[in-house]
Amino acid sequence: METTLALILSSLLAGFLGAAAMDFFLLLASKDTHPHVDMTEALGSLITGKLEGANVIGRFIHLASGAAFGLAYGLIMVAAQATTLPYSIFLGLGLGLFHGIFTSYCLMFVVAERHPIEKYRNATFQTGALHLIGHIVYGGVVGLVVGILPS
């Protein structure tokens, strides 16, 4: 029971930290290279239909989702017996790659077409590629944290 609780808590924390790292990466990308990859604003405005307050709502949703996905990643790592370094990082990077491919596809071909804010309706290949890299960052951080913390 104690090991299960440790796994749940470490995976939730890993997912939260992974989502924060992904947000930071996309924030840097939106400032330096591509203005429309601010995922927290895009996510929040997708829900509310407006830009006002979208960052707060989007950040909350993304961090909470990151924690939930962290739990899923942690369970997969346990099932694959990859909860120690470096195996947890490698599996986290791989999971992030597949997660990112799926999410980038959805972003570019489903969400962008229906987004209520004009600037987020044009999801380019660069937008998808940056989100793919962001998810790989997420997976790497989740793998690192799961590998460091007791599970």
What would your notes on this structure say?
The structure is a single chain. With 151 residues, this protein is mostly helical. The protein is 79% helix and 0% strand. The protein contains 5 helices and no strands. The model has no long low-confidence stretch (mean pLDDT 91).
Q: Count of helices?
A: 5
Q: State the major sheet.
A: none
Structural class: mainly alpha
Compute the average pLDDT: 91
What is the oligomeric state here? single chain
How many strand elements? 0
Overall geometric form: elongated
The total number of structural domains is 1
Radius of gyration: 16 Å
Order of helices and strands: HHHHH
Helix content: over 70%
* CA distance, first residue to last residue: 11 Å
User: How much of the polypeptide forms β-strand, as a percent range?
Assistant: under 5%
Poorly predicted regions are none
Short description:
The chain is mainly alpha-helical. It has helices spanning 2-32, 39-48, 54-79, 87-114, 125-148. The protein has one domain.
Keywords:
151 residues
Blueprint (SSEs and pairs):
Layout: H1 2-32, H2 39-48, H3 54-79, H4 87-114, H5 125-148
Helix pairs in contact: 1-3, 1-5, 2-3, 3-5, 4-5
